[in-house]
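Dock iron/sulfur cluster; give full complex structure.
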Amino acid sequence: MPDDELQAYRTRWARLFPEQRHVDFDDCVVTNDYCPDCRFCCGPQKESEPFPMALLDRQISDRTADDFYLLDDHTACLDQRGCKALGPAGCRLDRSLRPVACALFPFVLVNRRLYLYRVCPASMFVDAAALADMGRRIHAWLATLDPADIERISISRRPEDLAAKYLDLNLPVLV
Ligand code: SF4
Ligand code: SF4
């Protein structure tokens, strides 16, 4: 994403969010008070490449295909249609059914490294030290997960996409 496009998002978010809002990581979830008035990352995406959102074994059931657009039976996705689980009042799923990616966004595990999605208003407006501290706590929590789940949750991005939209938090690669 060119710098001017990132700047355009910054201007758009600054108009929508004149005051800084609360964002924190607690109890395995990023609580992000920008989300209810933003929903940018749950709605239709401009990119043609779908964003994969892995599902854990315990989240798979007969209802999964009704809740999500699926790349395969363990991977929901967000694409140009948006997320199937997005309703008029926001996500219609119980938190336990939402992909781990949703609980952590705008923190994203790419190739087992933790990144910050730069386009999110929280990434733009929350203090950098607070974001770095959240990143360390999320990393510590991820490190407690089963390696198979880490593998499943971790996504890959094209190098140019990664460089343009994701900030490397300089934390160790998760194994
Ligand atoms: S872009 Fe950020 S603030 Fe907006 S819905 Fe996604 S996580 Fe929430
Ligand atoms: S599952 Fe819910 S929180 Fe996650 S992308 Fe879909 S609508 Fe958004």
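Observed: The CA atoms of residues 67 and 85 lie 5 Å apart.
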